[in-house]
Specification:
single chain, 626 residues, Heat Shock Protein 90, Ribosomal Protein S5, domain 2, five-stranded mixed β-sheet
């Protein structure tokens, strides 16, 4: 028998699409507050949001005679026609948030608009309005939600533990607070302050406030603009990668989203800069024309669809790549990671706990803060969200030990911060950030492996093997892609022995070698004769490359896949200059010139850095000069 469900049951089913756990409620209420142009929002939760949620803002409020209407399904002030869906400018627009929340919880709303003498208080339980009275209250809106799923026990029993639900809420509020740097957002858990952003529009400051000083280390500013697209944010230097994508936060037009398109653009920018299994840290905020993005493709608006995926991916890739060409992107040696000459004991890396000293985030050095300019944090201390909220990674509450304050160090750090604020400048546009290492002063080699260089503020070590691998790899690819092949004829041809597998699959690889500049053909008895080699190689390099290339072919790779061919070329670059090889000044000069012409001079094809850097400040700190 077909029947029409009653309103109460239909509301509970519909609510399940929008509200599946406490974090969903807070997300909807936060978005409403932001759409109301609030500049200060406070989120309070108890028991992971299961028993109590309160979101208070100083936004425009709701007119008293319309407050009850806000709890009606599909009631919204943000769109009026279907055409409005073509260019959504607000976070919410479906008119389902309050209706869905009150269907599965006890809700109280208190609101007042600017100029109104009194506000309005409305209480709703299970979609039934119990109270609608005038009340005194400040301008803005407060929504209190109690006893989530009290009338849907089947949903209630599937909620996670209090600590797990709290972690979800902290993560969501943290991400949203980064997207709205000009809004002061405060989070309180079980009466304890978790974090509070300043609302001063400083993205870097918010990252440090929410995620701690350690998260702010080695971040590079990203800025770019093109035909209505604006990109801002920070990405990690290749040396500060993460084992997961958990610290990749993407925001589009103020909406925190999961985006494979932005993810692909980010990872393309780091191509050959990271080892397999490592991922960049990123806080990227993209603004674009509203008509070029569809946000109405997911019930909770977590996913979006771009009109032109390639355009967005390419825009992200190019601007992140520019950030990665800055001097600050080079791996940096820090004094805390170097054995102390005075004590003879290794300094403890930042973020490492010992029995004598609890885990504490390390503040960015004054030099780092100065380099970041207008993005730098000015806070004296800021702990990671999980620490300041008074709970450990499992959500267990704990108290912090009191530690004696080192007044001398505190005054010193305060003076340093003051000096940095006096000297701070805004980062240069991305197009001026490129680090030209041809202007460095080269002073010799260390252990016949590392080329030493310096400029006015930094000291550098260049790994000659990694540098030559990069040069070798890019020259081969350029030769492969070029219409004109640059080869040198051998006076005495060379013979290369191969396995049966290589001979049998000749038609899949021989044209690729010829495209690189080899004149090669079968000579019989599993042997190939080579009469010409690429112009930039000597004979030993050409032979070593072919030997490694043929070894890789034994695994029968699919060479019709361009990426597979690039991997084989990458693995076959072992014939580059080795560590320990003695190079003349002319050879060093030639290597540096070749490296400066590379598309990606800062890492070898396998992801290892070619350069590392140590700032003057870090060196002077080790000698106790600062």
């Amino acid at each position: 028998m077909i029947r029409i469900l009653d309103k109460s049951t239909a509301d509970k089913i519909a609510a399940g699409e929008v509200i599946d756990r406490p974090v969903s409620i807070i997300k909807e209420l936060l978005e409403n507050s932001l759409d109301a142009d609030a500049t200060s929002i406070t989120v309070e939760i108890k028991n992971g949001g299961k028993s109590y949620i309160r979101v208070t803002d100083n936004g425009c409020g709701i007119e008293g005679d319309q407050a009850e209407l806000a709890f009606t399904r599909h009631a919204t002030s943000k769109i009026s026609t279907a055409q409005d869906l073509d260019a959504i400018h607000t976070l919410g627009f479906r008119g389902e948030a309050l209706a869905s929340i009150c269907a599965v919880a006890r809700v109280e709303l208190i609101t007042r608009t600017d100029g109104a003498k009194t506000g309005r208080k409305i209480s709703v339980e299970g979609s039934q309005v119990l109270e609608n009275n005038a009340t005194g209250c400040p301008e803005g809106t407060t929504v209190t939600v109690r006893d989530l799923f009290y009338n849907v026990p089947a949903r209630q029993k599937f909620l996670a533990s209090d600590s797990a639900e709290t972690r979800r809420i902290v993560d969501m509020v943290s991400r949203l607070s980064l997207a709205y740097g000009d809004v002061k957002i405060t989070l309180i858990n079980n009466g304890k302050h978790v974090f509070s952003t300043r609302g001063n529009g400083n993205i870097y400051n918010n990252i440090v406030t929410v995620y701690g000083n350690e998260a702010g280390k080695d971040l590079l500013p990203v800025e770019g603009a093109m035909s209505g697209y604006i990109l801002k944010g920070f990405v990690s230097a290749p040396s500060a990668s993460s084992p997961s994508r958990s610290r990749q936060i993407f925001c589009v037009n103020g909406r925190i989203v999961s985006s494979k398109v932005m993810e692909k653009g980010l990872e393309a920018a780091y191509k050959e800069k990271l080892f397999h299994g490592r991922f960049p840290v990123a806080f990227l905020f993209l603004s674009m024309p509203a008509e070029k993005v569809d946000v109405n493709v997911h019930p909770t608006k977590k996913e979006i669809r771009f009109d032109d995926d390639f355009e967005v991916e390419d825009f992200i890739e190019r601007n992140v790549q520019r950030a990665l060409t800055a001097k600050e992107a080079l791996p940096q040696i820090r004094s805390e990671n170097i054995r102390s000459a005075a004590t003879g004991s290794p300094d403890i890396p930042a973020g490492t706990a010992t029995a004598q000293e609890p885990l504490r985030p390390a503040a960015p050095s004054p030099a780092v803060a100065e380099e970041r300019g207008g993005y730098a944090s000015r806070s004296i201390s800021a702990a990671p969200a999980g620490e300041k909220q008074g709970c450990d990674r499992d959500g267990a509450e704990h108290e912090y030990e009191e530690h004696q304050v080192d007044i001398k160090s505190l005054l010193s750090s305060m003076r340093e911060r003051h000096d940095n604020e006096e000297r701070a400048i805004h980062p240069e546009p991305a197009e001026n950030m490129y680090f030209d290492f041809r202007e460095l002063d080269y002073t010799g080699t260390l252990f016949n492996t590392y080329i030493m260089a310096s400029d006015e503020d930094d000291f550098y070590l260049i790994d000659q093997h990694a540098a030559h691998e990069r040069v070798f790899y890019e020259k081969l690819l350029n030769q492969y892609n070029s219409a004109e092949k640059s080869s040198q004829q051998l006076l005495l041809p060379i013979n290369i022995g191969v396995s049966v597998n290589v001979t049998a699959s000749e038609e899949t690889w021989i044209d690729d070698l010829r495209a690189m500049g080899y004149d090669i053909e079968f000579f019989g008895n599993n042997t190939y004769i080579v009469r010409e080699i690429p112009a930039f190689m000597d004979i030993s390099e050409a032979e070593a490359f072919l030997s490694d290339f043929f070894s890789a072919l034994d695994d029968k790779p699919d060479l019709t896949d361009r990426r597979m061919l690039e991997k084989i070329i990458m693995k076959s670059c072992k014939s580059a200059v080795k560590g320990g090889d003695v190079l003349s000044f002319q050879e060093i000069d030639s290597l540096i010139k070749d490296l400066s012409s590379c598309v990606n001079p800062f890492s070898c094809p396998h992801g290892r850095p070619t350069f590392i850097r140590m700032t003057r400040y870090e060196i002077e700190k080790m000698f106790k000069r600062v």
